[in-house]
Structure formats: C-alpha cells, structure tokens
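User: Please fill in residues for this 410-position structure.
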C-alpha cells in the first residue's frame, strides 16, 4: 500500500475539527470528512490514482466522489458493477451432491439458505424418492415438505425454503411438483394443505386455487404436475425473495401426513437457466443457420465483441468458424432436457460476483471476507465453515476459467 512519506492523513476525523492527535507533529494533518472523500486531497498528497500519471502509472487507488479511497480492485466489486443474473440457483436441489435429512437452517440446500420449518409440525428433506430432473443420469433429487401425524394445525402454519433472486427480464417461474398423502384413504386434499410460491412474502401461486387444465380446480388426489407456469409481474434491478412452501389451509388436527415435492424450479430466462452455447448469437437457445448468418455478416471484421469473436483475437475469421461448428445443431432449451443435443451449461462456483470469469475481482471478494465464519457465505468455497487458504486453492483451480455468463450482456 502506497503512503507518501511526507504526509500521513488520518481518516477518523470529525468534520468540524481542524486536526487530531499530536498537533505539534508537522506530519499529522487533520482533514474534514468532505475533503477525505475528494480525489484532489489524495492526488495533491502524491497518491497514485487510476486515471492520472503525475503520481505514477501503477493505478493503485481509485475513488468515487462522496466515498473514501479504495484500492483499484475494490472499485471493481462495488454493487453497481455486479452483474444482474436472473436465475434460480440449485433449482433441482443437487448442488450439494448429497441427501439432506432433515433440512434445517444449519443444513439447507445450497442457495436455499433461508429455511423456516417448524419442527413440531413439519419436516423437510432432500432425497431421491421423487425427482423430475437430474444432472447425473437416473440420480436426481427434490425438495420435500411433509406435515406430521396427530398434530393440531392452525390455518397459515407453513414450512418454507427461500433464496434471493433477481427478476429482471423474468416472465415466468416454472417448476415440477408432486402432491400426495401417505395413506391410500387420505390422498392429497386442498382443503387441508397447499403448495405455495411466494415472492417477497406475497403469494403468486397457491395450489388450492390452481386449475391444471385451465378449467377445473386441482383435484383432491395424489398427482404429479410438470412445467407449472407462474407469471411474474416484477421487472427491476432489485433483489427479491423467492419462497417455496407448504401451508395449512385449516385449523384442525391431521392424523396422517401430506407431502409436497418440488423439482426443476427455474425462470424462463437464459433458456430456463441452461445458459447459452457459444455461437448462439441470437439467444434463442439453438445454434443454427440464423446464427451462421449473423456470423457471416461480420466476416473478417475487426471487433472486440467476444460474443462473435469466439477465438478472442480481435477479428471474425476462420478460427471463430471452427469454434462455431463445435456447437452446430446443439441447443440449450430446457424443454429438450435429456435429448442428446441438449446441453445444460454450468456456472463456476468460484465466480463470486457472477460476471462469468474467475479473476482478481473474485479474489478481492474472498479477501474481503477473510476468516469469516458467517453461515452459507459464498467465499467459503471449500465448505469448511471459514474463509481461508483452502478457499484460495479452490479459487486457483478455477483461475481465469469462463462460463457462458462472461459473454452474456445484461
């Protein structure tokens, strides 16, 4: 860290004070808060800032007027530089690579860390009993909630799991669901329980009010439903809370169990979260002649747009065509899941700021959370409960790797 030898400026100064500390020391100069948030205060003192060369060309410091100086890499991780990625993460409940029984606030599915399951009335778990989507062939998971037997319920009692999401550009929440009782004489009954989807605590879908065929209400029987579509009316840059829940619809005792299973939860954006193949220039989830026409339209042109300059050498040419051909006739449309030519693209665990590449920006986030023991913190890449050297090793394994998000403009 560069601190000029002729001036040492203190930052913990009351704006109404002219100086602090030992006022007889000519090297101690008091500054107001306003001055401490102006670039000129520091450049006049010889600090090497981004965008000036008088004090050096190393670009060590940066500042936003109204804030204090930061090291150059800190500026890169300010909230306004974080990419808005409108996705449900771990919507198939497989990212943990294991079954979770029971689900608790301390042991929750990855990204679904806001868990509220009253243990006297509900239980929750993640396992392979029923599932509709999997990363590994014939081995999927789902999130399940179950009521308990011989328990008195109050209308509104609820078990839930939530995650924070962006909804920019999202038109629908899509999921698969299984509803059932646990006794042949007591199948799923909407008068007793509902499966519920909420955004910011407000219901956007309730199974008891849902018409699977568009006409008749949900029948009171055990059933599985696929590709349930829930319209989303929010479209902004803010974080929102997406909640999956099971809720009691009556105040009464229940002598058998009722269960809800959730799987393949996603938004309609980014091909249902499958991402975009390199070469899918028009972002329709398919690499075909329409994309070829776009590539041909830029043939031999110089460009810094790596969406088209696949080889990243500054020109659209034969090297890019070779990479384009690798994706030819492929697709990432979630509706084709399981087909040979359908690809589900993954994100990078070490991409902590979701910009599609693991680099110094992610390292800066990790360092800013160094030795943190906060539960479910993303920088704990090794999963041992504390951010430390093992997480740097994981970061190194992904260093400079890119995911499809790197080429996604938002």
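Assistant: Residues filled in for all 410 positions:
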């Amino acid at each position: 860290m560069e601190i000029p030898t002729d001036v040492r400026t203190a930052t913990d100064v009351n704006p109404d004070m002219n100086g602090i500390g030992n006022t007889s020391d000519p090297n101690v100069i008091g500054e107001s808060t306003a001055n401490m948030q102006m670039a000129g205060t520091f450049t006049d003192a010889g600090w090497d800032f981004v965008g000036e060369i008088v004090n050096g060309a190393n670009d060590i410091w940066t500042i936003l007027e109204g804030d204090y100086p930061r090291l150059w890499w800190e500026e890169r991780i300010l909230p306004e530089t974080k990419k808005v990625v409108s996705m449900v993460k771990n919507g198939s409940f497989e990212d943990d690579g294991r079954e979770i029984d029971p689900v608790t606030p301390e042991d929750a599915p990855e990204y679904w860390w806001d868990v509220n399951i009253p243990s006297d009335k509900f239980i929750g778990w993640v396992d392979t009993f029923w599932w509709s989507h999997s990363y590994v062939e014939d081995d999927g998971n789902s999130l399940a909630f179950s009521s308990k037997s011989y328990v008195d319920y109050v209308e509104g009692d609820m078990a839930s799991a939530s995650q924070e999401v962006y909804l920019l550009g999202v038109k629908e929440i899509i999921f698969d669901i299984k509803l059932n009782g646990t006794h042949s004489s007591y199948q799923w009954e909407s008068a007793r329980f509902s499966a519920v989807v909420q955004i910011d605590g407000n219901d956007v879908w309730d199974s008891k009010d849902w018409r699977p065929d568009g006409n008749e209400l949900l029948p009171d029987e055990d059933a599985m439903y696929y590709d349930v579509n829930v319209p989303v009316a929010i479209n902004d840059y803010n974080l929102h809370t997406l909640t999956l829940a099971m809720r009691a619809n009556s105040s009464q005792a229940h002598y058998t169990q009722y269960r809800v299973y959730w799987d393949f939860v996603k938004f309609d954006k980014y091909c249902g979260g499958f991402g975009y193949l390199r070469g899918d220039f028009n972002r329709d989830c398919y690499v075909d002649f329409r994309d070829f026409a776009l590539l041909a339209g830029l043939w031999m042109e110089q460009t810094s747009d790596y969406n088209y300059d696949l080889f990243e050498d500054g020109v659209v040419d034969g090297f890019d065509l070779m990479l384009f051909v690798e994706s030819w006739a492929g697709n990432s449309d979630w509706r084709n899941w399981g087909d040979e030519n359908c690809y589900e693209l993954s994100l990078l665990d070490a991409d902590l700021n979701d910009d599609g590449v693991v680099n110094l920006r992610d390292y800066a986030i990790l360092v800013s959370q160094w030795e943190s023991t906060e539960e479910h913190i993303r920088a704990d890449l090794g999963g041992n409960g504390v951010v430390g050297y093992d997480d740097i090793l994981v970061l190194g394994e992904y260093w400079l790797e890119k995911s499809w998000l790197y080429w996604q403009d938002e």
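For context: The longest strand covers residues 172-181.
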